[in-house]
Structure prediction request, 107 residues.
Amino acid sequence: MFEVSEKASEMIRVFLKGRGEPQFIRVLMDEGGWKGPHLVMATDVQKENDQVFVEKGLTFLIEKELFDRAKPIIIDYVESTLGAGFRLKSDLMKGSVFECDNIREHC
Prediction:
């Protein structure tokens, strides 16, 4: 399962507006930081080993092996007293204290 909330898709469109190619959003794993491994997003081009999802008119890419490890993936956009940003939830950090609450200002 790969899900993107309405608010997240709206904010990704804002991020992509006026940018050139590529218009694909890659979901990838960031290994570092105090949270340990967690999912993040970046713009990228499609590669041979990608799983491709089209959600709400946006194209998302993720390496097939990573998707198998992380699924289900849910992308949301949240606003809180800590700030606003994207939250990527998955089974990648299941059982972790942080439960993939990585809030970012930008993709």
User: Anything to note?
Assistant: The radius of gyration is 13 Å.
